[in-house]
Amino acid sequence: MNHVSFIWNIAESLRGPFKPSEYGSVVLPFTVLRRLDAVLAGTKAQVLETAAAQPESLPEMIRDLQLREASGHEFYNTSPFTMAKLTADPADLRENLASYLVGFSENVRDIFERFEFDKTLSKLAEKNKLFAVTEKFAQANFHPSVVSNIEMGLVFEELIRWANERSNETAGDHYTPREVIALMVQLLFALDDDALTKPGTVRSIYDPTAGTGGMLSVADEYLHSVNPGINLSLYGQDINDGSYAICKADMVIKGQDVDNIRLGDTLTEDHFEDKKFDYGLSNPPFGVDWKDQRTEIEDERAKLGFNGRFGPGTPTVSDGAMLFLLHLVSKMRKPADGGSRMAIVLNGSPLFSGGAGGGESNIRKWLLDHDLVEAIIGLPKDMFYNTGISTYIWVLSNRKTDDRRGRVQLIDGREMFQKLRKGLGSKRNELSPENIAEIVHLYAGFEDGEHSKIFRNEDFLYRTITVERPLKLNWQATPERIDAVFETKPVQKLNDADASALRATLLALGERVETTSLVEPVETKMWTDRPAFQKALKDAAKAEGFTLPAPLLKTLALALGEQDDSAEPCRDPKGNPEPDASLRDTENVPWAQDVDAYIAREVLPYAPDAWIDHAKTKEGAEIPFTRHFYQYVPPRPLEEIDRDLDAVMDQLRAMLVEVER
Fold first, then answer.
1. pTM for the structure as a whole
2. Cα–Cα distances in Å, from 212 out to 161, 222, 242, 412?
3. Confidence of residue 512 (pLDDT cuts 50, 70, 90)
4. 145, 3 contact by CB (below 8 A)
5. Helix, strand, coil in percent for the chain, rounding step 5
6. Is 212 exposed, middle or buried (0-12, 13-18, 19+ CB in 10 A)?
7. How far is Cα 290 from Cα 294, in angstroms, rounded to an integer?
8. Per-residue model confidence as pLDDT tens digits over 616-647
9. Where do the H-state alpha helices sit in 103-148?
10. 76, 94, 215, 328: which one has the fewest Cβ atoms less than 10 Å from its Cβ?
11. Cα–Cα distance, 321 to 381 (Å, whole number)
12. What count of other Cβ atoms lies within 10 Å of the Cβ of residue 519?
């Protein structure tokens, strides 16, 4: 029997009272319920006997342990009902179903609560559909001897996919395309096949943004196909109640430890704070701000520094994707304990956003300094359901092979795709099995080529230096500059007497002098040396009986001054030239280049008086992915363009002749 078709036929029977987008809220929890009913059937009597023998005074922890032991699983049900017994009493079905659900252990009851299954049951009862749906599910044989955990997992995953495709929600919020997950999983394990196929292999995989559990499921399938006897533990956390319920249900159906799936905000409630994992996978939300979590995250960084998750820095508050990247890194085992490898999907922003000294740049530099970036793979556009933007898979590892140490591999997979026959939301393209195999082959091969480039870590590092030019001004007390003086705030605060004295001072300072020009016989006196100007200004003020305090003197020097390259540089009390902020510039110098040599070659030939303010130098990192794969396409020859134009004109003339006929 095709179990998926059987279940979806039940869903189709809901048409009318339920919208197609609501089918998942019925069939997913009912599928879980029927599977658990079948799994627990063999030990049902022992559980009921154990529960009846437990005294009321027994501590809850001991009660729970005894019932788990009796059931032979990490969950149990103490209700006397089964699916078969429920359908035998249609009149009391709604009440008995509620009693049956309450009988589950807390870790399973939580699944149905997050599904809001009680509301669904009430609606089914109201629309007179409850008995029909329950009876049909009771007929399904989901016993482990008939449907294995792996097979049941595949059934449930297919149901999740169907539910997502029919949902009015944006599927991409909770569902990563399966072929993208397949690529990530194969990249994650491509270099470890030998180790993973050994008997008795034990591994753990973690997804901090688990969604409905797709990444964990694909990883589970892949590793069991490589090594059926592998002992694999799956861990995940998600903030969305519905996604968490589906993921947790999927793990229950697969026979995984249900307590390894947690609900909560990964960034502020790390439910696996003390755990490290062999592998990690994540597709965090793209471009979602973290302002609601800002206080907790910054508090953690201030208290724990590099002993916490966010020591290297925090990105701009408008996009928190790099916080999940740092979180994944914090879950790596120490290299001495075997190390870890992680894969995360990010948009293009984490490659280059933020200048030197900024949060994103500091994070990139820290990752490169610690040799954690193994590879970055560019994916085709239009791959995801809720966005068509460019996306990249970052592969991170603290156990690189010798040939990869100190190196980063960039793989260009942006043109490796096939078109979908019908788009799904923003998704227009998909990776074929051949595309996935090609990308994984490039990654495993670790060679320079058209679609694969190998770089040293320091190739992505740089220094941002500040280039200063001396402040050179001339000073004149022209009417326009005097007006500018009286528009400044310090001058506007003067009382009337001081303001009048200041104006008289400036008018005296602006006396006109004879020139040799026939066009302009006189001009306002000009100073090109600041000490000389300041002395003249003080003398003029003294003549008016007006004392100039230092702050006001500074204001006047700024308001009466204009840039003049022919003037003498302004100097500080130590005799050093003062920088002109308006001429200040920055240069990004590649890490391997000598800064002084760079300035001598790139700056001094055009600005001989420039210098570097080393106190302002910042270190940064960026990964200009597209630049490294750019291929110049020369413009078409003019002769070819002319020929095409002539051909078009000939066609137009022929068409006109036909019209005239």
1. 0.82
2. 10, 18, 8, 29
3. low
4. no
5. 50, 15, 35
6. buried
7. 6
8. 999 999 999 999 998 888 888 898 898 999 99
9. 106-114, 117-126, 130-139
10. 94
11. 18
12. 5
